[in-house]
């Protein structure tokens, strides 16, 4: 059992900061982590048009090669101090499963770790980024016709990601399973989403996959909770679903977000995986 942050971004994140790998690593050492995973956003399929206005959802393939080489060097530099895993956060995009499988087949052997996440929702032939901004989320609600329909589509897509055949290198951990709640204080629910979350946990359990216990929602101004919230993390633990704490930090000073709260309730930074 080790202290582990399994979801960290990097200077290669186009929508992150210029904080260096070293800044993240030194912060991890300060917090007493024995192992960390850098899980930068994997390149999107070449034929997929990034729907965010800034076109900065993920790094390019050229950047991916440099990212891997950079981390290989740092693994050697810090080998006596901390275990550094080379990882990716891979987007599940409905309709692009074969492209994602090819990406994983090409690069999977270079990875120590990976997360599979849903950020994009498909509506007919149109895609929207769920968490880009509250204004974008408002547009998504209008397109789907109601907030509940957006939630329903998100959780349906999440289940598709869990059940998808992405080949032998498919990530075993599923990222921030309640990301749809990111703007919940601006768009409060008038419905109960517990059946959706429970269905996701049930499928996770059946498929033998791992839960990302993600602290990033705590610092999102309209969310203010873990992804998923603590009661659902406890439910996952009761169901025997393995979990890994992740700060999902996009800058070094956010590494360890929610660490003390998770430790006090679950001890989950000492990975159950």
Give an overview in words.
This protein has 273 residues and is an alpha/beta fold. It has one domain: Metal-dependent hydrolases (TIM Barrel), CATH 3.20.20. 35% of the residues lie in helices and 16% in strands. The protein is built from 8 helices and 9 strands. A 7-stranded parallel β-sheet has the order 1-2-3-4-7-8-9. Helix 2 (61-77) links the parallel strand 2 and strand 3 (83-91). Helix 5 runs parallel beside helix 6.
**Given the structure, what is the number of helices?**
8
> What is the second-level CATH architecture?
Alpha-Beta Barrel
* Low-confidence parts: none
| C-alpha-based Rg, rounded | 17 Å
CATH C-level: Alpha Beta
For the termini, the CA-CA separation is 9 Å
> What do we call the CATH homologous superfamily?
Metal-dependent hydrolases
Q: Which shape, going by the Cα principal axes?
A: globular
Q: And the CATH topology?
A: TIM Barrel
Share of residues in strands: 15-25%
Mean pLDDT: 95
H-E order: EHEHEHEEEHHEHEHEH
Would you tell me the structural class of the helices and strands?
Answer: alpha/beta
Enzyme class: hydrolase
Pfam family, one: PHP
Protein name: Histidinol-phosphatase
Keywords: Amino-acid biosynthesis, Histidine biosynthesis, Hydrolase
């Amino acid at each position: 059992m080790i202290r582990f942050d399994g979801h960290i971004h990097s200077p290669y994140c186009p929508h992150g900061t210029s904080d260096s790998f070293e800044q993240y690593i030194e912060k991890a050492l300060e917090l007493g982590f024995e192992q960390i995973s850098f899980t930068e956003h994997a390149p999107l399929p070449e034929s997929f048009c990034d729907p965010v206005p800034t076109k900065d959802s993920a790094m390019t393939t050229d950047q991916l090669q440099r990212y891997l080489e950079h981390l290989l060097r740092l693994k050697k530099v810090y080998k006596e101090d901390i275990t550094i895993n080379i990882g990716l956060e891979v987007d599940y995009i409905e309709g692009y499963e074969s492209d994602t499988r090819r990406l994983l087949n090409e690069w999977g052997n270079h990875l120590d770790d990976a997360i599979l996440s849903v950020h994009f929702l498909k509506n007919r032939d149109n895609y929207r980024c769920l968490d880009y901004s509250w204004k974008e989320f408002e547009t998504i609600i209008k397109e789907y016709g109601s907030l509940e329909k957006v939630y329903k589509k998100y959780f349906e897509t999440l289940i598709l990601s869990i059940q998808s055949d992405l080949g032998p290198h498919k990530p075993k951990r599923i990222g921030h399973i309640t990301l749809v709640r990111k703007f919940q204080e601006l768009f409060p629910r008038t419905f109960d989403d517990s059946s959706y979350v429970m269905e996701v946990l049930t499928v996770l359990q059946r498929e033998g996959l791992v839960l990302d216990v993600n602290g990033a929602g705590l610092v999102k101004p309209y969310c203010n909770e873990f992804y998923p919230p603590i009661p659902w993390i406890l439910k996952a633990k009761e169901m025997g679903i393995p979990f890994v704490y992740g700060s999902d930090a996009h800058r070094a000073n956010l590494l360890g977000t929610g660490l003390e709260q998770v430790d006090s309730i679950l001890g989950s930074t000492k990975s159950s995986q």
